[in-house]
Amino acid sequence: MTSTSIIQVPERDRARAISTIVAAFVSDPVERWLFPELAQYQAWFGKFVAAFAGEAFDQQSVWTLGDFDAVALWLAPGAGVDEAAIAEVLTDAVAAEQHEDMFSVLEQMDRAHPAFEHWYLPWLGVVPDAQGQGLGGQLLEHGLAIVDRTHLPAFLETPNPRTVAFYERHGFVLTAESQSGGCPPVISMVREAR
What we know:
41% of the residues lie in helices and 22% in strands. By secondary structure, the protein is an alpha+beta fold.
């Protein structure tokens, strides 16, 4: 039987947490536009996730539910992603003909990222076999309870239009859409401080 306790992910389990995110996003439109071949996706997407995870493991703001069935990586106010690593992975892994659209979307995402103090949720994922069981909602509620204790807003981007309604049910509102050329849109969303 799978545990349903939410636990903090220690640094030693970084690879397991990232593997969960990789499995969870295997069918998402933006990720598969970036990495259309499955082998390419499997070889590179974990590095991309790690770069976007930034300081989350150092801050101890990564949580899992079940046997790594779901993972949420949060960045506390002031923490950032590893922008140089993100650019390096994408430049090395994504086809050159996609670079213009890809970097345009990243620039738009950067402009849409709030300048005010906030919590950032770069990754929340549930492995395909466990999706639809409420694990993502439980993990999101856990993170938002921590956010609410700080009385700050929360911010995220979603590369999958199907998840917008899920985040709206948890108080997020759409604030921007980043899109260029053939790259599917990335939706930016904010949940006001509570």
